Amino acid sequence: EEKIKSYMNGYLTYLESVRSVYEAMGAAKFNIFDKASAGAIETYNGVEIKSYTLPNVKAAFAQLPPQAEGLAPKQWNIYYAIKGGKMLYSMSANAQSIKAALERMAGTGVGFDKGAGYDKLTHALTLTNNMLVGISPLTAVKNIVQLVARTNPDVGMVMMLLGNIPEAYSIGIASQNRDGGVEGKLFISLGDFKDLINMAASMRGEQ
C-alpha cells in the first residue's frame, strides 16, 4: 500500500517521464500534460480522495472535425483513493464513482448485486465463475446520446424517450478456469431490448 501511495504522490513526475519518452521517440510535442496539477484532497468516510487535473487534454483532439469538437472533453480529472490495500481509480467529471465504491466497501452503498437484471444474469450463468461481467446496453446508449446532444440539440428528444426505459443488466459474460484453459459463457436477455426496439421503430416511422 505504501508503494502505491508513493507512486501516486509522484504521478506528475510520471507524466513528465511519459512525455519525455514520446518526444524522444520522435513524436510531435506531447503537450497533453501541460499545466497538469494536483487537485484538492477530499476526505469521505474517513478515506482521502486525491486528484489530478489535466486541463490541456483538448490537444489530443485537435484533429477532430469542427462538428465533433463539442464531443471532446474540456479537461481530464483523475481521482483515486486507497483503502485496505486496494486503489480505487476514476477518470470522470467528479469523485462520485469513488465515493460510491467506498460506500459499497463499507456495506452502505448499492452494489452490483442490487442492480436490475442481476438475479436473471446469475441464474443463467451461475455463481461458480471466476469472473462475471454485467453490461447494461441502455446505460451505454444513454451516455452516447448525452455526448451527441452537446453538438446536436435535436437529440435531446431521444434522451427524454430513453429516460422512460428502465436500465438493467441485459448482457452477461462469465468465465472460469477449466482443464488448463478458460471456458466462457454469454447471456443476452432479448426481452430487455423490446422497449428500445419499439422506440427505434416508432421514430423511424415518423421520419
Helix percent band: 25-40%
Oligomer: single chain
Strand tally: 8
Could you report the average pLDDT, rounded to the nearest whole number? 77
3D architecture notes:
The protein is of the alpha+beta class and 207 residues long. The protein has seven helices and eight strands. It has helices at residues 2-9, 11-24, 96-106, 118-125, 137-148, 156-162, 194-206, and strands spanning 37-38, 42-44, 47-54, 76-83, 86-91, 131-135, 171-178, 181-188. The strands form two sheets. Strands 1, 2, 3, 4 and 5 form a five-stranded antiparallel β-sheet that branches. It has a three-stranded antiparallel β-sheet with strand order 6-7-8, with helices on one face. Helix 5 (137-148) packs antiparallel against helix 6. It is globular. The mean pLDDT is 77.
Give me some keywords for this one.
207 residues, alpha+beta, five-stranded antiparallel sheet, three-stranded antiparallel sheet, 7 helices
Quick summary:
The protein is an alpha+beta fold and 207 residues long. It has helices at 2-9, 11-24, 96-106, 118-125, 137-148, 156-162, 194-206, and strands at 37-38, 42-44, 47-54, 76-83, 86-91, 131-135, 171-178, 181-188.
